[in-house]
Amino acid sequence: MYEIITHSEAETISFGARLAGLLKAGDVLVLEGDLGAGKTTLTKGLAQGLGVTRTVNSPTFTIIKEYQGRLPLYHMDVYRIDEDEELGFEEYFQGDGVTVVEWGSRIAALLPEERLRISMERLGERERRIRLVPEGGRFVELCKELRK
Ligand SMILES: Nc1ncnc2c1ncn2[C@@H]1O[C@H](COP(=O)(O)OP(=O)(O)O)[C@@H](O)[C@H]1O
Ligand SMILES: [Mg+2]
How many whole angstroms from 41 Cα to the centroid of ligand 1? Predict the structure, then answer.
């Protein structure tokens, strides 16, 4: 487990950028938290850290957006999909990029066993608690790395 409290949008973005530096192809990050918790904001930071130059927006209506960076970033928001809608997620998860899934618990059965769960909570106007829960050995190591 790793926990950080941020006090501004910018701090969440810079944490995302730092986290991105530890990611590799095939990594899957599952973001949880209410609307406005900061899931998309954190993803903007991840994108920055992956060297994505295009602007990252919420993929709510498109479900999946792809960005080119040091590694490709696949950004999904599955808030509106049906449990058993087949969108070929597995190909992204096993692919050559990093996948970030907002509301990923909605497709829990489709997610790889090894994944990094990130839950975000709004503590105040600008305060957010970000908790990283590793699922799989690789992410235990990653959390250790973040603590250094
Ligand atoms: N510490 C913070 N971290 C992230 N976002 C913050 C923070 N403080 C305020 N905000 C604001 O909260 C909102 C988060 O929105 P967004 O990232 O779209 O959330 P979600 O994707 O979880 O619905 C943005 O308007 C952002 O400016
Ligand atoms: Mg969002």
Answer: 6
**Domains along the sequence of the chain with CATH:** 2-147 (3.40.50.300)
Outline where the chain has alpha helix (H). 9-20, 39-49, 89-93, 137-147
Condensed to tens digits (0 to 9), the pLDDT of residues 89-130 reads 888 998 899 999 999 888 888 899 999 999 999 999 999 999
- Nearest-CA residue for ligand 1 atom 9 is 126
Cα 28 to averaged position of ligand 1 atoms, centre (Å): 21
Residues flanking ligand 1, CB < 6 Å:
6-9, 11-12, 33, 35-41, 58, 102, 126, 128
The model's pLDDT over 2-55, given as tens digits with 9 standing for 90+, comes to 999 999 999 999 999 999 999 999 999 999 999 999 999 999 999 999 999 999
